[in-house]
Amino acid sequence: MRTAIEITGVSRRYRSMTALANVSLSLKKDVIHGLLGRNGAGKTTLMSIATAQDWPSEGEVRILGMRPHENEQALPKICFVREEQRYIDDALAKHAFSAAAQAFPRWDAELATQLAREFRVPEKTRIKKMSRGQRSAVGVIIGIASRAEVTFFDEPYMGLDAVARQLFYDRLLQDYAAHPRTVVISSHLIDEIAHLIENVVVIDQGQILLQEPVEQLRDRAVTLVGRADAVAEIAGTREVLHHEAMGRIVRTTVLGALDHADRRALDERGVEIVPVSLQQLVVRLTARHGTSDQTTMELSEEVSR
Ligand SMILES: Nc1ncnc2c1ncn2[C@@H]1O[C@H](COP(=O)(O)OP(=O)(O)OP(=O)(O)O)[C@@H](O)[C@H]1O
């Protein structure tokens, strides 16, 4: 089976608020996926439903072919690391690790101990008394050492310093290479996780804006920097995502890959081609989605044209 996570027509409403609107998503097995989107886009809601911690108002979820809700067979295969993880009162890190050992059959206790040392998780401090970063580290360790077949990290880096975040990315990749599994990470630090993820899902206002392999997405847009008339000549026929003028020089971000002839024409006119980072692309696409009346489908089609 190549699909690990299948979400079909899932909606989640809170009274008048629609957090997810008819979301369908199919995520491949043994791939690291990035779930990206602005505050309130629906990332946590989607992850909570996929991990059976919340129920959809409509629609269906399948994890490894199984319905996860109240399913004793499915749940040991699913790990959800979230910022506001609750632990048993007065628990130390080792207690949280023992509980994880019970919950996840592939738990690696040695790895957890090693990671606890590397993240400098204090042994004798109760989790509720730990600093925010230390608490996040406990969650991250559980996420990695559980080796659950499907692991969700919801903004796992909150409070982690730059060194600890790098350690998280390195250790996750290392362990994933040795023990492939399906990972979904939500993050606002898009460029930080760009090298980690293979597939990108962008969600905005409860709708999936796009789902695409990172490599493909990188070629989707470029920024052209040069004289306004020269840039306009090439940009004119394309979808403009962003435009800035600095005197006679403009920076225009356009959708669509450049072919050989475009590159030659730009070169002849002294126009510089600057790659667009994943973060910039996601920011531009979501900003555009928020201000336009286009449907998700239209925008996705545009992006993939
Ligand atoms: N229990 C709740 N009751 C009412 N509204 C809720 C509830 N939980 C989430 N929402 C709303 O649903 C929407 C999606 O929230 P969600 O937490 O999934 O967003 P998110 O993408 O994870 O955001 P962030 O990046 O800020 O964590 C938001 O508008 C939020 O206010």
TrEMBL record:
Record keywords, A-Z: ATP-binding, Nucleotide-binding
Keyword tRNA-binding: no
Molecular function as annotated in GO: ATP binding
Pfam family, any one: ABC_tran
Gene3D superfamilies assigned to the protein according to its UniProt record, in alphabetical order: P-loop containing nucleotide triphosphate hydrolases
Position of the signal peptide: none
Domain ABC transporter: 5-230
Superkingdom as given in the UniProt entry: Bacteria
This protein's name: ABC-2 type transport system ATP-binding protein
Annotated source species: Nesterenkonia halotolerans
